[in-house]
Design a protein that fits this description.
Elements (H helix, E strand, L loop, with lengths): L3 E7 L6 H12 L5 E7 L4 H8 L3 E4 L8 H17 L4 E5 L1 H13 L4 E4 L8 H8 L4 E4 L2 H8 L7 E3 L19 H4 L7 E6 L8 H11 L5 E6 L10 H9 L8 E5 L5 H4 L4 E3 L9 H8 L3 E5 L2 H6 L7 E3 L3 H12 L5 H15 L2 H17 L2
Helix pairs in contact: 1-15, 3-4, 4-5, 8-9, 8-13, 11-14
EC number: 2.4.-.-
Pfam families: Glyco_transf_4, Glycos_transf_1
Organism: Paenibacillus filicis
């Protein structure tokens, strides 16, 4: 069988959630059926990371979209790559990439699909990108798929759940870790964690305020793991630190900043708290579940599609009051974290591994191209 040659376009070259997904798919892509080259629109650490996977990379420096000269220059370069490398399919990673790759593919009469990592709304970029011809769109969750299908004109939209690389997120074993002693956390204390970019839509402020209320009565600690990425909301962390200072025990809220490796930190936590009201999927959720951790998440969007509340995690209505209630119930031993964590790991192993994600990705590409 002839290999399908993919040209994958990524607007950024640093690791974010969508980029981590791309890397995991490349790791598990069937080398007997696919050959992938990756184009980045800027230099960054991800270029070398992808090269280490054995993929050829290209960096085409793209200025802001308003720079028309740069825009058409990049499209011309893409067209040259499509021809010279014998590309069969262009895969545009995220909407911005499709603004370039979709046009280049159209001009070269090649199929193009794009990856919608978020929940699209009526933002001009979502509307514009959806008008560029595409063979199909891949979405990580049913909620993302639902909103993408509302945009016109409608290209075929296929579900492609995300997955966790279980080698990077083995079942957590906190024994022997010196994390708690170094940070002055007693072994018997319950440790909650917020993990993710520090942006307002992810609502870490709600998590910290809920923690402040719980800490008045219980010996608990909170780890805030994350920072600002891609230059977004760089001042927000200071707001969160101010909220933390409102606590009776501000020393129990530990800001750890952005971390490249989160598994060793999560291994010493007990519960991961998620607060987004309309999460497109929730990689933080599945990664935490893979480590055997209990996750508290809002029962909407992606988390509702992942968690069976009371079996492998806990869902709440998004309010601070109900979050406080659940956190206190956990501290008071009303839930078995061991059982929830064991079931969480089983859920990831059966439904949300990186291998299954890549396998679905391959199937979706063949489905879209064969139906063209």
């Amino acid at each position: 069988m002839k290999k399908m040659k993919l040209l994958i376009l990524s607007p950024v070259a640093e690791r974010g959630g969508a980029e981590r997904v791309m890397v995991d798919i490349l790791k598990h892509l069937n080398a007997d059926r696919f050959m992938a080259e990756v184009v980045f629109f800027q230099q960054g650490s991800l270029v070398q990371e992808v090269e280490r996977l054995g993929c050829r990379t290209h960096v085409l420096e793209a200025a802001r979209l308003r720079n028309i000269t740069s825009y058409f220059r990049v499209i011309g370069q893409l067209r040259g790559l499509i021809r010279s490398q014998g590309i069969d399919l262009i895969v545009n990673w995220m909407p911005k990439a499709h603004l370039y790759g979709g046009v280049a593919a159209r001009l070269e009469k090649k199929p193009a699909v794009w990856w919608q990592h978020g929940v699209p709304d009526k933002h001009w970029l979502d509307r514009l990108v959806s008008r560029i011809p595409a063979t199909g769109v891949l979405c990580p969750s049913l909620i993302s798929k639902h909103y993408q299908e509302k945009l016109k004109p409608g290209a075929p939209v296929l579900l492609n759940n995300l997955g966790v690389d279980l080698q990077e997120f083995p079942l957590a074993n906190p024994e022997g870790s010196d994390f708690r002693p170094v940070h002055g956390i007693p072994e018997e204390a319950v440790v909650f964690a917020f993990l993710g970019r520090l942006q307002r839509w992810k609502r870490p402020d709600v998590v910290i305020r809920a923690f402040n209320r719980v800490s008045r009565k219980h010996q608990v600690y909170m780890l805030v793991i994350g920072g600002a990425l891609f230059g977004l909301e760089t001042d927000y962390e200071e707001e969160l630190r101010a909220i933390a200072l409102e606590s009776d025990h501000p020393e129990r809220i530990i800001f750890l900043g952005h971390q490249q490796q989160v598994a060793p930190i999560l291994a010493v936590t007990d519960v991961v708290v998620h607060a987004s009201l309309l999460e497109p999927f929730g990689m933080v959720i599945t990664e935490s579940m893979a480590l055997g951790k209990t996750v508290l998440a809002v029962g909407r969007g992606g988390p509702k599609e992942i968690i069976n509340s009371g079996f492998d995690g806990l869902l709440y209505d998004g309010t601070e009051d109900q979050l406080v209630e659940l956190m206190e119930s956990i501290v008071e031993g009303k839930f078995s974290l061991q059982t929830l964590g064991k079931n969480a790991r089983s859920t990831v192993e059966s439904r949300f591994t990186a291998y299954k994600m890549a396998e679905r990705f391959e199937h979706n590409l063949h489905t879209l191209v064969s139906s063209k």
